[in-house]
Amino acid sequence: MKTNNFSVLYTIAVLVPILLNSCKKDHPGSPVNTSSAAVTIFETTADQTKLLEQQPTIKFALDSSSNANNTITVDEGTTYQTIDGFGFALTDASAIVIDGLSAGQQTALLQELFAPTGDGISSSYLRIGIGAEALSLSDYTYDDLSSGTDDNLTSFSLSPSMPDLIPVLKKIVAINPNIKILASPFSPPAWMKTNNKLVGGTLKTSSYPIYANYLVKYIQAMQAQGIPIDAITPQNEPRDSTEDPSMRFKADEEANFIKNNLGPAFKAAGLKTKIICYDHNCDDPDYPRAVLSDTGAFAYTDGSAFHFYAGLITALSVVHNAYPTKNIYFTEQYTSSNGTFAGYLESQTSNLIMGATRNWSRNVIGWTLAGDANNGPHKPDGCQDCLPAITISSTIKRNIQYYVFAHASKFVHPGAVRISSNITGDIQNVAFKNTDNSKVIIVLNSGTITENFKVKWGTESFSYSLPAGAVATFKWQG
Q1: In a 3-state reduction of DSSP, which class is residue 351?
Q2: Inter-residue contact 98 to 368 (CB < 8 Å)
Q3: Is 43 one of the catalytic residues?
Q4: Is 429 in contact with 423 (CB distance < 8 Å)?
Q5: According to CATH, where is 2.60.40.1180 located in the chain?
Q6: Which of 43, 112, 254, 332 is catalytic?
Q7: Among 210, 333, 418, 470, which is disulfide-ready with 45 (CB 3.0 to 4.6 Å)?
Q8: What is the model's pLDDT at position 65?
């Protein structure tokens, strides 16, 4: 029988795709999984026999099981916050020991830490001090005077940071021009304060506009060095005046400062640098809520920052739920050299990498990036047990926080979004979708025995066995 050519073409071009598509059974927001996606796996164990060690690749397979026990269902159709990145505080101590490496060693280490592509860990966020912080060799700001005041800031200078911090920052920015840098002052210049000291005291009311201009000048000076400051907090740990240096800054004072001085000064200078309030522990969510309840401060404030030395990590959600249009950040957690690898692998993965991001944080920052064999250098009264992510002595040693953060930073890239995944039993987890559509799930076995579990994605799944206290990151494309 003779066939009409138009009919044949119409059947092939139009009807066949329709028939094929009608056979698909899409889960809303989930893939069809016809490719049996390959899953790359990196694992770290509590006994350190595996340290971010790549495991054999496995594949998704069609899932027909109705057993939901120990099953994590990843649903990319439900999304949460965008992720800015994971990284560390580049303290003065960090900069000094990194800058002391030979040129070849330094380049290799910075590439390993900050290159956005390659075999390193792709750290994408830094926190630095505006002046001295807890791991500096001395107390200083960028406008210190022996007497009097400098209301016009004519003595302002970045010179204290020129030997080490700024050169290292320049090299990092050259490796990753998109890295985000958060800057936090531990104290304004002493002459701006009620006690005329860098430790304790409060900001004089008359110094509010001067301090705002000081922070503007700082951002502009760093920009002139080729170092963009993405965000600042007005004061590190404003409820504590015992550290060295430090300042107490109550919630209503910070709100007034942002509303009347800092925000308008940034606007007048044309700065796009974000203003993030609070920057202290999870035990006082009322502080950032008080700042954001002030409509004037609200208008200039991008969000709130938290540390985790007190309180519950769910405090981040308390503030998010009260002000859902404002961002949440996690900006500090130290590791003690007196702790154990296994203990920190579980606690920091659970509370920081998973806890902070499951409670809306756009970033997670650890304290501190690098130090010497004595967790320094620092002043005699500096933090004696602040174990850095990397110890630099005769060798370069990667410590626990390096591995905890690498399980996220190496795989979850800036611009990723957190996606839905349920927690089942002792199998804690958090999931993300990168901008290239790759999926990442970080899994922790917080139990005391090896656990078998399943990760289900759309119509397919894979199974895996994870030892007690171990962490694994799974990544696949699709």
Answers
A1: helix
A2: no
A3: no
A4: yes
A5: 27-81+420-477
A6: 332
A7: 470
A8: 75
pLDDT at site 242: 82
User: Any catalytic annotation for residue 237?
Assistant: yes
Could you tell me which residues are beta bridge partners of residue 176? Answer: none
Q: Residue 406 has what DSSP assignment?
A: H
Question: What pLDDT score was predicted for residue 241?
Answer: 84
CB 43 within 8 A of CB 424: no
* Residues near 3 by beta carbon (within 8 Å), at least 6 away in sequence: none
The one-character DSSP state at 334 is: B
Q: In the chain, which residues have pLDDT < 50?
A: 1-34
In angstroms, the CA 292 to CA 376 distance is: 37
Contact 110, 98 (CB under 8 A): yes
Q: Which of 43, 237, 253, 460 is catalytic?
A: 237
pLDDT at 34: 45
**pLDDT score recorded for residue 67:** 63
Length of the chain: 478
Q: Rounded distance, CA 453 to CA 179, Å?
A: 35
Top-tier CATH class for 27-81+420-477: mainly beta
Residues of the chain with CATH 3.20.20.80: 85-414
The whole-angstrom separation of Cα 44 and Cα 407 is 9
Q: Please give the single-letter amino acid code of residue 113.
A: L
Half-sphere exposure of 321 (CA within 13 A, CB side): 9
Tokens representing 446? Answer: 């917080």
pLDDT value, residue 243: 77
The rounded Cα 4 to chain-centroid distance in angstroms is 64
Could you tell me the fold of the domain covering 85-414?
TIM Barrel (3.20.20)
